[in-house]
Write a structure and sequence with these properties.
5-stranded antiparallel β-sheet; 18 helices; alpha+beta; 30% helix; Glycosyltransferase; 9-stranded antiparallel β-sheet; 815 residues; Beta-galactosidase, Chain A, domain 5; 25% strand; 34 strands
């Protein structure tokens, strides 16, 4: 394909005319193992609720204040619990979605209201002397320390500690302690379970959730001694949710208690006279369960049993188990950075939240926001397989397995959807909670069939990294075969070429195009992986009706796949004809008009050379074996000049390829931008929850970007590099039950890389193209060659990555 490129291109822009923009001062104390915020900035309340959220993949508690107010989104979530809602279409059409699902705020058990004399402990009143909250990444707790004087002059200190157990998927707990500072004072604590809690208003941002009012109907409320259980049912999806609480009180002197439960509220009240200098401590245990089959009494019994276990373990026991779990995680997964303390903190915070979203998600998927908020309605997208699962596969493989098992459990729904669309195999949903398609905008949803290749790629990568034969037989064959069938029915032979027309690739500013290169190369790999697994697992393949003729058709389609190339520009085309489209007028686009999707009609975006997020560049990462280094450099330069990063998914991929072609400063800037997407609220929507894919991408940039790790065809290769601000970068991965530690170090002689196999059989890898066999207990240190592609890299005006200011890089811990 030969195209004539327009005379005026974004590359012609003078770089010096584009001022440097720095990442914002995020306002958190720099600490290697904590995220701490001093004071109570009300304008950042919702962002802090997201960043201070706790979860375990099953339960999610937003970081709202213990006393419940002030707050923006109270936020208590159970993975898989949703309510249905209508999705009316402006014009009816066959195959369009008529109803969808949104994650709901379930019964809130975080609330502990404090009354000091006749004054409620409400931080917008009285005098706030000090306030600090910290997310402890090694203890797995949200810690709070407050000194406050009530309007009536009584001063108290409140310390609380909250956890969601990573060991017990249904349990959470809170330790809440009140100390009288200025004199004897009467206090009263109200510990609540509250259902149908009012939320916030309706938003016009399409990324926000659908607002649902009172989605639950009460079915059961019981209380006895110090505990209570509420059971509710969603009104349309008919899912039952049980929430229970129990308490242990520690105090000097008498304490009067009451317990009540009715409808949407259960309340345990403790009242005491607190002498000056004395303390009262309340430990609150929480348990959650849900089902679409089991009865209300059965769920009540389940929750009460979990609470009994919590009481037996005790608060200190839960803390000890939490720390032990996290010690093991950080030993296996930690990324160590020397030279930028703020980036070190941001990367660890990101990895911690990815773990929280996935550790105990058994039977359910990993949503784009995890369990930190209802942004995107709590839906799971391709983000999970493409960006989150790589980190999990090499650090917490059991969590990656769990997510893929969930996808497998929805396979029948995907088969039904494919049949509805006139296709064979499985058409997995673009966005979903239960496995049903929930995308109402078909050009960006139904047409984005690359969700299938994301699932297939994650499956093949998991099998390569783990050698999990049980999963291969029970799930792997099914997933790879049914996704391959989808591609064979979606594409067609045009002479000797196999084409896939009318699809939407990762770049959602280019919809319903022919031969999207990313889609094609990923489908190509999908079909080849399906052939390989069927040859290895003939019995399972036979059960699915796979024949030698069908495998031959997959091979033929993969070998004949159209890979669009524009000889006029010397680059691969993102899709057929893309490089001949009119250029977007970046010079006339104001900063406040980004993201473009909120300020311009889609039809204008679709017909211009403007890219929302890495598309062809992502193909060069995941299918790097399909491109030469020179092709990667030329492609990157071309598409970098047209990519606006209106998606949080983009910068991580751009960093990986920038590092591979030797543009380390640019890769470093993209890494930092990715790490501060939520800490700096760069996309102005962290209020609705965290960007899990962006957080996982901070690991990806460290390992695949500067570590240069690739796993093509089951062979691990590395091409380490070190950006100038850093003195050392180290990470660990697990591959086939062998743990490998890689360190990239700046020395007086230059930059070196060391590889240490910590356990297991010898491991064959490659270092910058040279084969190497590692033996357990031995460390190998090698030099790193200088690589720099001979291309000039520019971005659209105003869309350069933000820089780390020198003062931020040189900042030291204040603890």
């Amino acid at each position: 394909m030969t195209r004539t490129h327009a005379a005026t291109t974004p590359e012609a822009v003078d770089e010096t005319a584009d001022p440097i923009q720095y990442l914002p001062d995020v306002g958190y104390d720099i600490h290697p193992w904590k995220l701490s915020r001093r004071g109570l900035p009300l304008e950042q309340l919702a962002a802090n609720e997201s960043l201070f959220s706790l979860a375990n993949g099953h339960i999610g508690l937003r970081g709202s204040l213990d006393e419940g107010e002030p707050r923006v989104f109270p936020g208590t979530y159970i993975n898989g619990v949703f309510e249905e809602h209508a999705m009316p279409q402006a014009e009816a059409g066959y195959g369009l979605i008529e109803s969808a699902e949104t994650m709901v705020n379930v019964t809130d058990g975080k609330i502990i209201r404090l009354f000091v004399g006749d004054s409620p402990f409400e931080l917008r009143y009285g005098t706030l002397s000090s306030h600090e909250r910290s997310l402890d990444l090694r203890a797995g707790t949200l810690d709070r320390d407050v000194e406050w004087t009530s309007p009536n002059g009584s001063s108290v200190r409140v310390r609380s500690r909250r956890l969601v157990s990573l060991n017990h998927r249904s349990l959470a707990a809170i330790s809440y302690e009140v100390e009288a500072l200025s004199g004897d004072v009467y206090i009263s604590l109200q510990s609540d379970l509250l259902a149908n809690e009012p939320g916030s208003g309706v938003s016009k941002d399409p990324r926000d959730a659908v607002a649902l009012d009172a989605p639950f109907a009460s079915e059961l409320a019981v209380a006895n001694q110090c505990g209570a259980v509420l059971v509710h049912r969603t009104k349309l999806s008919e899912l039952r949710v049980a929430a229970g609480m129990d308490h242990i009180l520690e105090a000097h002197g008498d304490v009067e208690t009451t317990i009540e439960a009715d409808g949407d509220l259960a309340r345990f009240t403790a009242t005491a006279l607190l002498p000056r200098g004395s303390r009262l401590r309340l430990v609150k245990f929480l348990a959650y369960g849900w089902s679409h089959r089991r009865s209300a009494p059965a769920l009540r019994d389940q929750v009460e049993a979990a609470l009994a276990i919590a009481r037996m373990i005790g608060w200190e026991g839960l803390l000890a188990q939490q720390r032990e779990f996290l010690n093991d995680f950080w030993e296996r997964a930690d990324v160590q950075i020397e030279g930028d303390p703020g980036l070190q903190q941001a990367v660890r915070v990101s990895m911690f939240h990815v773990l929280q979203a996935s550790a105990r998600a058994e039977g359910q998927g990993i949503g784009a926001k995890g369990l930190s908020g209802t942004g995107y309605d709590g839906h799971t997208f391709w983000d999970a397989e493409t960006f989150v699962l790589p980190m999990l596969t090499y650090t917490v493989p059991e969590a990656a397995r769990s997510h893929l098992q969930w996808r497998h459990s929805t396979l029948d729904l995907a088969r039904d959807r494919a049949q509805e669309l006139g296709l064979t195999g499985a058409a997995f949903p673009w966005r979903t909670i239960s496995g049903r398609e929930c995308s109402g905008y078909w050009p960006a949803g139904t047409a984005a069939f690359h969700i299938n290749s994301a699932i297939a790629y994650a499956t093949a990568r998991y099998l390569s990294a783990t050698g999990d034969s049980e999963f291969e037989g029970s799930c792997g064959v099914d997933l790879l075969v049914e996704t391959a069938r989808l591609w064979r029915s979606l594409g067609h032979f045009d002479g000797e070429a196999f084409r896939i027309d009318g699809v939407t690739g990762p770049d959602e500013y280019s919809a319903v195009v022919d031969d999207n290169l990313y889609t094609n190369v990923m489908a190509q790999q999908n079909m080849r992986d399906a052939v390989e697994i069927c040859l290895q697992r003939p019995q399972e393949a036979a059960v699915l009706g796979v024949t030698s003729q069908e495998m031959a058709s997959w091979t033929a389609a993969a070998d004949a796949m159209v890979i669009a190339y524009d000889a006029g520009t010397g680059v691969h085309a993102q899709s057929e004809g893309f490089t001949s489209h009119e250029e977007w007028n970046f010079e006339e686009t104001a900063d406040e008009q980004y993201p473009l999707l909120l300020h311009f009609p889609y039809f204008q975006l679709y017909r211009k050379q403007v890219i929302k997020q890495a598309d062809l560049v992502l193909a060069m990462h995941l299918r790097g074996d399909a491109f030469t280094l020179d092709e990667k450099a030329r492609n990157f330069a071309y598409y970098e000049a047209r990519t606006v990063r209106d998606s949080s998914l983009s910068a991580g991929t751009q960093a990986v390829i920038a590092a591979e072609i030797g543009h380390l400063d640019l890769a470093y800037d993209y890494w930092a931008e990715m790490a501060f997407v939520d800490l700096g609220d760069l996309h102005h929507n962290v209020d609705d929850g965290l960007h899990l894919a962006a957080m996982a991408s901070t690991w990806m940039v460290a390992v695949a970007g500067f570590g240069g790790m690739r796993d093509h065809g089951g062979h691990l290769t590395f091409a380490p590099r070190l950006p100038q601000p850093l003195d050392r970068l180290a990470f660990a991965i697990t591959c086939r039950e062998r743990r490998l530690r890689v360190a990239i170090i700046r020395t007086a002689q230059g930059v070196e890389a060391s590889y240490e196999l910590l356990n297991g059989e010898p491991l064959n890898i490659a270092h910058h193209g040279s084969d190497l066999t590692l033996v357990a207990g031995e460390s190998v240190t090698l030099g790193i060659p200088t690589t720099m592609a001979d291309v000039t890299i520019t971005q659209p005006p105003g869309r350069k990555p933000r820089h780390r200011a020198k003062r931020e890089i040189e900042a030291v811990s204040s603890h």
